[in-house]
Amino acid sequence: MDSSLKKFFYPKSITLLGASSKEGSIGYEILKSIKSFQFTGKIFVINPNANKILGTQCYSSLDEVNESIDLAIILLPRKFVLQGLQDCARKEIKNVIIITAGFKEVGGEGAELEKELIRIAKENQIRLIGPNCMGVINTEALIRLNATFAAELPKYSQIALLSQSGALAAAVLNTISQTGFSFGQFISVGNKADVNENDLLEYWAINPNVDVIAMYLESFENGKKFFETTKNISSKKPVIVLKAARSEAGTKAAISHTGALASSDKIVEVVLNECGAIRVETVEEMFETASTFQKIPIPRGNRVAVLTNAGGPAILLVDQLEKNNLRLSSLSDKTIKRLKEILLAESSFGNPIDMLPGATAEIYKTASEILLEDENVDSLFVIFVKPVMIDSFDVLSSIAVVQKKSVKPVLISAFPLPKFWDKWKEIGNEDAVIYKSLELPPKILRHLCGRKPRIEKLTKSVKYEQKLSLNEKSYLQKKLTAKGIIPQKDVQAICKKLKLPIAQSLLVKNFQEAKKKISSLKFPVVLKVESLDVIHKSDIGGVIINIKNLKELRSAFNQIIQNLNKNKISEKNVHYIIQEFVEGGTEVIIGGFRDPSFGPVIMFGAGGKLVELIKDDNFTLAPVTKSKAIDLIRQSKIYPLLKGYRGETKVDINNIAETMVICSNLINDFPQIKEFDINPLIVKAGKGKSKIVDMRIIAEQ
Ligand code: ADP
Ligand code: MG
What we know:
Elements: H1 6-9, E1 13-17, H2 26-36, E2 42-46, E3 52-53, E4 56-59, E5 71-74, H3 78-90, E6 95-98, H4 108-123, E7 127-129, E8 135-138, E9 145-147, E10 159-163, H5 166-174, H6 176-179, E11 185-188, H7 197-206, E12 212-217, H8 223-233, E13 239-243, H9 257-261, H10 264-274, E14 278-280, H11 283-295, E15 303-308, H12 311-323, E16 327-328, H13 333-342, E17 353-354, H14 361-373, E18 379-385, H15 392-405, E19 410-415, H16 420-427, E20 434-435, H17 440-459, H18 470-479, E21 484-485, H19 488-497, E22 505-508, H20 511-517, E23 525-530, E24 543-547, H21 550-566, E25 575-580, E26 586-595, E27 599-606, H22 611-614, E28 618-621, H23 626-635, H24 639-642, H25 653-669, E29 673-683, E30 691-692, E31 695-699
Parallel strand pairs: 1-2, 1-5, 2-4, 5-6, 6-7, 10-11, 10-12, 12-13, 13-14, 15-16, 15-17, 15-18, 18-19, 19-20
Antiparallel strand pairs: 3-4, 8-9, 8-11, 21-31, 22-25, 23-24, 23-25, 26-27, 26-29, 27-28, 29-30, 29-31
Helix pairs in contact: 3-4, 7-8, 11-17, 13-14, 14-15, 18-19, 23-25
Adenosine-5'-diphosphate (ADP) binds near residues 581 and 587.
């Protein structure tokens, strides 16, 4: 394993710059943690004002140390940090963690100092973690490094954990003794001046002691890289992500509908899903999911058998299973017959199987085994609520044995008396996975179930058909030079070049010009105002449809001019579009948007005037293949209608998908496009042709 990050986790020697003899200070507490966890390597403490701290001899400067050092941890006051890093550079230390805060996160001088740190690190090929972080832990027996100020230490497991927030990490570490969370490697990345989540993902991907990666993130340092890296890793090791800021509002100042609907969290959701990461909502879910992945096999499918000794909890559990797209197995006759042989006649033999409170350890075990042998059962869910006459320890020990042996997942939710858990921990039943709730385990089972299809999807190679040709590209390049809203005449030209099905249109200055040119269009037509001052034309009465003759066209012009006056819009810069009238059909939207961290995305949903009300916003990363476009259409709320709702004729969704492919290439290939939407594309049933009647492209300003 060759990685510049290795020595953060596997140092043979470390130095502490800024260790302090003042009890309660970070510089003291970290040294205490390192010592009390019995770090297996050498420790060099640098402090010019102390002789010994916590029994360890101090050096007055790094230069005094004659041996080479793998890792430096800097805890100095901010004003000395730069000097500290320079000392490390002189000593040829290549891995440095800066715990000290007061850098980029405070702006101003702090931000400048951080830039300096980055420069020095780059110049000296130093990998830097932090500043403003909480440190590093490796619980492996050969290392035993705890360079954090957390008082409690987790048990070892093959989980690697990253936290962007030091405080959240501290909160987790402080409750280890109650939660029992375990992990092997932990790092808090703080300001990510150098090392970020992408570097760590790559490192953990090749570290054989890491099976599962869990991350708490507040921001993505380089979204595209995160996507690619996670996509490569997540078919081999589960990557679990707790991403904060779920409730963030939609993108500010978006002109298009798509931009308005694309909240950054929505895009994060899409990205995490497409790169195969598992998104969780709470710290508890993150840890429980991580440890479940370590210990419990992945199910073949989503059919669940529920075994219980209490009715109420089973009903609640079934609700939760449904919410998580899990199904109850229909048990085979043979299974039911076998269960009847061992259970009381009054038990329920449907699924859930309620064995009633009398069920003993032996009965739990045998019934579990019978259910696991049923072909229709992909996983087994066992609920145990302590009855007076039954010993919790016996029951849970026997189910734990079944869980350990089974090739199918066995999930256990148990409600013994509180004092039970101390005894359970004492005996050291670490391998068993037992949950203390009914709400969380169905979510975890959903994550387990999602794993196999995700891996299949990730390992399927995707070929991008239908790219834009060079000729198309150079033509478009010339049309996409404006900043802000691209003029309609250019939009129309782009559509024609790309063979996008834009409705026939004429662009005119006034009725007189319209009268001269109208012969190229057939009545009925639609008249629309076209002005950079009007974003939503129909909002100001700027769209009049189904105009049957010249007379009606003249009055439509007058009407729109009146509406413009009413809305105090000057007629000076106004043009008009006369467009073929597309009768009937269903209005859909195809949109595109450039996410600042993840790049171009594409949207599909129900279109027309109500688009922001209905919020049928389905996103995927661009460019898309036709089959991905079809998947997106199938996800939409409007899909049942397109499929032929209540006996109506079906729409050819292939056509829509082809338009989406072209549009996704458009936004992918032209970085100057910030957002666009086609709203609506009017799609026709049967052999009818779909038409774009309104398209807007917005370029970066
Ligand atoms: P805007 O979105 O700026 O209000 P649109 O051009 O999208 O303007 O027109 C608004 C609505 O008018 C469309 O959603 C559609 O219902 C109808 N409409 C516009 N153009 C046509 C057309 N050529 N044929 C049929 N209906 C149209
Ligand atoms: Mg529109």
